[in-house]
Amino acid sequence: MTREMRRKDRQLGEKDIKELLHKAAYGVLSLVDANNQAYGVPLSFVYFRDALYFHSATEGLKLDLVRQNSRAAFCIVGDTEVLPEQFTTNYESVIALGKAIEVTAEEKEAALEAFIEKYASNFKEKGLACIKNAGSATTVVKLCIEQCTGKAGR
Fold it and tell me: Which residues of the chain, if any, have pLDDT below 70?
């Protein structure tokens, strides 16, 4: 889906988009099932090697849908501030579109290490041990970004 942003005055540049992808704590992965039923699931993620990575158990609806149809969208919302007296909100957001694929081996391990760095950097040694002990019970999905837009009202 390629469509120009209506409010170009609020469009974020690539640098701001990447900063938001690095700092945001969670987002919503949107997938579609075989009956065109939409499914959105909130998750933690890392922006790593110019892609988005998610982890999960080795089975479940999210993985079933990724395996059926790799097309996916991921939306994050950064800082927000409701301004009631102005009937508006300051916000920042990013939407990424692309293909979701499972990754294995070195790429999987590197992505899991990126999760530790982002969410538990003070516990790196313990996190690396967890990857070694439980990594086989974890699936890592990579969203290969084909289009990414950001918008902010500040």
Answer: 1-2
